[in-house]
């Protein structure tokens, strides 16, 4: 029976589900998003080697999307080989990249599979910590199976140390699971915004399936069934899955808690809840009808409400279909087709491994610094055990507070308490420093982006932004320049608690913050 027939024949679908369920029970006992085999209750993007079975850790330890810790040190790249799509989402305008894994309004340079392989080898020789190649559009990777799998096959042969990853809306997924396994594609993202077609019909106007266009409730029902079946089949074959969901206030916000439960049941390793970005100039249905995206605290509230379900990824950058570099940086402009012709490609496996060993040492040092800081804090009487607050951090990688306030195009957000310094998100901002002088017009938008934070940790900051941040109630801190982030955040937190205890300052709650919607300003782009 083909997978296409499975939808049409409900009883056969149910049998196929039963078979998969039996396999799932077996898989779940050794899986990761479960309270299973290794006796651990939780893992996911902030997990480490002690939180999951060794074979899962091997798959995630240097994947920047599947491990929050890894994302400070390892890079990924995308190749835009998959232009077609088989569904329509109301938050997407097909003039631009797929919004399921990309920031709306971005157009990537499309490549043939041969060009894509050439580009991957060029990037691998320039960026030895690039460990993952993903195909995430600009349409749907599995609506373009030949281009996607030709690329994966060549890379599997020519760059065996690079992990292969793809992202899909899931409609074609059940038909492609064998190919995914054949080319060792160990990581698959499925965008799942609903598990109830009545919610789905508000998000998807149509799908194209089995040579036919479906609309409304029926379209959403088919998509939902194909997504669930595809997820179950991947779990049964041992492929790690991440679920992306776009949080659309008033449509699926509370519903995402149920989505989280359902995908966990089916073995999803991670759940990434991303904010809807819908500007009228993107020309999407949601942009044009005024559907707003969530605020930072609305996003965090839904993520927090999912605690205990499938593990959450909170460090996604909604990157473009031709992204290159660490998640928080974009080096795609350095590797356009005309430029890679000038790069001398030396794909040297030994050199890559040696470099990655250094990266691994740096990462271990970051973990050790955090452990040490947490131990010091636990022994510290002055730290309020009930206090939990957010700090923003300017970093250009290596897990350190190592960026000038004026050079930041994003701030990483950490939730700090006596027991933890946890990455909980990031906020994009326009550059404050415009080539030697500060752009005071940008400051209010930066303050809005980190308005829920009590402090901003930077390597350096000028007098003017320092005064304005202080006036807005956000403490600028450069005392921990070049320290590892978690250690710096915990040290600042201990000091903050002490100052409150001494009566030097009064603790006040912060407000909500704004998630950046539009493109970066032209001025910022020139400097970047
Ligand atoms: Fe790319 Fe996606 Fe693979 Fe990562 S992205 S295909 S899993 S290698 Fe990562 Fe980018 Fe977020 Fe995607 S930060 S948009 S989650
Ligand atoms: Fe756009 Fe991606 Fe949705 Fe297709 S799956 S319509 S490319 S957002």
From TrEMBL:
GO MF entries: 4 iron, 4 sulfur cluster binding; lyase activity; metal ion binding
Cofactor: [4Fe-4S] cluster
Spans traversing the lipid bilayer: none
UniProt xrefs under PROSITE patterns: MOAA_NIFB_PQQE (PS01305), RADICAL_SAM (PS51918)
Keyword Cell inner membrane: no
Pfam families: Nitro_FeMo-Co (PF02579), Radical_SAM (PF04055)
Location of the region described as Disordered in the Swiss-Prot/TrEMBL record: 31-50
Pathway: Cofactor biosynthesis; Fe-Mo cofactor biosynthesis
InterPro entries hit by this protein: Aldolase_TIM, Di-Nase_FeMo-co_biosynth, DiNase_FeMo-co_biosyn_sf, MoaA_NifB_PqqE_Fe-S-bd_CS, Nase_CF_NifB, NifB_C, rSAM, rSAM_sf
Protein's UniProt keywords contain ATP-binding: no
Residues in Radical SAM core domain copies: 71-322
UniProt entry keywords in alphabetical sequence: 4Fe-4S, Iron, Iron-sulfur, Lyase, Metal-binding, Nitrogen fixation, S-adenosyl-L-methionine
Family: Belongs to the radical SAM superfamily. NifB family.
Purpose: Involved in the biosynthesis of the iron-molybdenum cofactor (FeMo-co or M-cluster) found in the dinitrogenase enzyme of the nitrogenase complex in nitrogen-fixing microorganisms. NifB catalyzes the crucial step of radical SAM-dependent carbide insertion that occurs concomitant with the insertion of a 9th sulfur and the rearrangement/coupling of two [4Fe-4S] clusters into a [8Fe-9S-C] cluster, the precursor to the M-cluster.
PANTHER family in alphabetical order: FEMO COFACTOR BIOSYNTHESIS PROTEIN NIFB, FEMO COFACTOR BIOSYNTHESIS PROTEIN NIFB-RELATED
Protein name: FeMo cofactor biosynthesis protein NifB
Native source species: Roseateles saccharophilus (Pseudomonas saccharophila)
């Amino acid at each position: 029976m083909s997978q296409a027939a499975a939808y049409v024949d409900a009883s056969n679908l149910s049998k196929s589900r039963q078979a998969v369920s039996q396999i799932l029970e077996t898989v779940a006992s050794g899986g990761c998003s479960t309270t299973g085999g290794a006796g651990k209750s939780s893992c996911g993007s902030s997990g480490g080697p002690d939180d999951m079975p060794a074979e899962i850790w091997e798959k995630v330890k240097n994947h920047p999307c599947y491990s929050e810790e890894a994302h400070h040190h390892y890079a990924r790249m995308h190749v835009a080989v998959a232009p077609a799509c088989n569904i329509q989402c109301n938050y997407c305008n097909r003039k631009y990249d797929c919004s399921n894994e990309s920031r709306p309004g971005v157009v990537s340079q499309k490549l043939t599979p041969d060009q894509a392989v050439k580009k991957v080898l060029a990037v691998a020789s320039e960026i030895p910590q690039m460990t993952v190649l993903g195909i995430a559009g600009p349409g749907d990777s599995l609506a373009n199976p030949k281009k996607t799998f030709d690329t994966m096959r060549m890379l599997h042969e020519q760059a065996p140390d690079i992990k292969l990853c793809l992202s899909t809306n899931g409609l074609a997924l059940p038909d492609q699971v064998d190919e995914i396994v054949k080319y060792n594609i160990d990581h698959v993202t499925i965008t799942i915004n609903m598990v109830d077609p009545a919610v789905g019909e508000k998000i998807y106007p149509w799908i194209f399936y089995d040579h036919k266009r479906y609309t409304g409730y029926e379209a959403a029902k088919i998509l939902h069934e194909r997504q669930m079946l595809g997820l179950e089949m991947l779990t049964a074959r041992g492929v790690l899955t991440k679920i992306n969901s776009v949080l659309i206030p008033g449509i699926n916000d509370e519903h995402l808690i149920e989505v989280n439960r359902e995908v966990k049941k089916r073995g999803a390793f991670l759940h990434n809840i991303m904010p809807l970005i819908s500007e009228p100039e993107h020309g999407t249905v949601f942009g044009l009808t005024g559907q707003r995206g969530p605020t930072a605290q609305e996003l965090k509230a839904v993520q927090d409400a999912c605690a205990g379900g499938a593990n959450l990824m909170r460090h996604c950058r909604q990157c473009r279909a031709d992204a290159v570099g660490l998640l928080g940086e974009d080096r795609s402009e350095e590797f356009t087709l005309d430029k890679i012709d000038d790069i001398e490609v030396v794909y040297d496996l030994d050199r890559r491994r040696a470099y990655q060993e250094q990266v691994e040492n740096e990462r271990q040092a970051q973990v050790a610094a955090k452990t040490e800081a947490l131990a010091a804090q636990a022994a510290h009487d002055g730290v309020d055990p009930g206090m939990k607050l957010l700090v923003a951090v300017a970093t250009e990688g290596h897990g350190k507070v190592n960026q000038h306030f004026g050079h930041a195009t994003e701030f990483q957000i950490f939730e700090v308490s006596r027991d933890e310094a946890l990455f909980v998100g990031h906020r994009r901002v326009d550059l404050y420093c415009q080539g030697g002088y500060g752009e005071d017009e940008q400051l209010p938008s930066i303050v809005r982006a980190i308005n829920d934070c009590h402090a901003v940790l930077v390597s350096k900051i000028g007098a003017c932004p320092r005064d304005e941040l202080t006036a807005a109630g956000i403490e600028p801190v450069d005392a921990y320049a070049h320290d590892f982030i978690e250690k710096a955040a915990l040290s600042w937190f201990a000091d903050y608690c002490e100052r409150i205890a001494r009566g030097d300052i009064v603790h006040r709650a912060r407000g909500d913050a704004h998630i950046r919607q539009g493109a970066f300003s032209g001025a910022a782009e020139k400097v970047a």
